[in-house]
Write a structure and sequence with these properties.
rod-shaped; Four Helix Bundle (Hemerythrin (Met), subunit A); 7 helices
Length: 315
């Protein structure tokens, strides 16, 4: 039987199409690099948030410590006021107790307690307050008024000890005026101290306002992160959907190709059967058996030529 029977569609075409589809999917899969960028962006946002939280906690701790320190200073100013009252008391009580020696002892003890207390307060305020803000002037006025009251009280007690109650009474009026000046200077010092405290608090508040820039930046980063993740997720979803559609289409095409190949095989089998039946009437039985054997050994893809058919015995 001469000539070639037409070959069926080769499988290499389907494989080439699958390789092309896989290459396209691989190129699209490079979008995973965006994930690394988003991860770095997320890390930067988290680190910025931790830094902001740590700084806010530090500012809060420093504010609490500063408030406690200022409260302690105001308590010491109140103690200083009570100390000034103790210095002034003997000059008034002597007219009631009429014991100049005892009141002079109380006065000396009160003076010895007042000056070291004032000096410690000056040192603590100087260590805490960077800008003077009028504190030195308030201290100077307080020291001058207190020194005047101490001299007047000593003079009053001296007059009373010598029995000169008239001079002692006149001196008591001057002493009370000096005591009023001392209280006024203490109040001035307290107000100055509060003014310095408020000024330092406002300066600290201005410093904390600078954190708002970082806060806004962090908020923008979080917003961008959410938007980027949303867009990236949508893009991934679309990519996976396209890949799924492509794979579904390729599967459908392969099934269609297999169906066509099966149909072509059936047509080929029918054609071969017709050829065999046509030749059966004109060929000897031995030649017919050889042709049927050659037909069974042929592939489904291409019929062998007459040159490649198995050799049969010749008559």
């Amino acid at each position: 039987m001469g000539g070639h029977v037409f070959a069926l569609v080769p499988r290499a075409a389907g494989r080439a199409w699958l390789a092309q589809a896989a290459s396209a999917i691989k190129q699209r899969a490079r979008i995973h690099h965006v994930y690394y960028v988003l991860a770095a962006f997320d890390l930067a946002a988290v680190v910025s948030g931790l830094f902001l939280t740590h700084h806010v906690n530090l500012v809060l701790a420093n504010t609490v410590k500063a408030n406690l320190a200022w409260s302690a200073l105001h308590d010491k100013v109140a103690e200083l006021r009570r100390g000034a009252g103790l210095v002034n008391t003997p000059g008034n009580d002597v007219f009631e107790s009429r014991d100049a020696a005892r009141e002079l002892g109380r006065f000396a003890a009160a003076v010895l307690a007042f000056w070291p207390r004032l000096e410690r307060l000056k040192q603590e305020v100087g260590a805490k307050v960077v800008n003077d803000g009028g504190i030195s002037r308030a201290f100077a006025g307080l020291e001058a008024s207190m020194a005047a009251m101490v001299r007047q009280t000593q003079t009053l007690l001296g007059h009373f000890a010598r029995g000169d109650e008239g001079a002692a009474g006149a001196e008591m009026a001057a002493m009370d005026r000096s005591y009023g000046d001392v209280l006024k200077q203490i109040d001035t010092f307290s107000q100055t101290l509060r003014h310095v405290e408020n000024t330092m608090g406002l300066a600290e508040l201005e410093n904390t306002k600078q954190l708002q820039v970082l806060e806004y930046a962090l908020g923008c980063m979080i917003l961008l992160m959410v938007v980027a993740v949303t867009v990236y997720g949508h893009k991934l979803g679309s990519l996976f959907q396209r890949q799924w559609d492509e794979l579904s289409n390729s599967s459908a095409k392969l099934q269609e190709q297999e169906r066509k190949l099966a149909a072509q095989n059936l047509q080929l089998d029918a054609a071969l059967n017709n050829m065999v039946q046509g030749l059966a009437s004109s060929m000897p039985s031995s030649v017919l058996s050889c042709a049927m054997a050659a037909t069974r050994s042929s592939t489904v893809w291409q019929l062998p030529s007459s040159a490649s058919a198995p050799a049969c015995g010749r008559s």
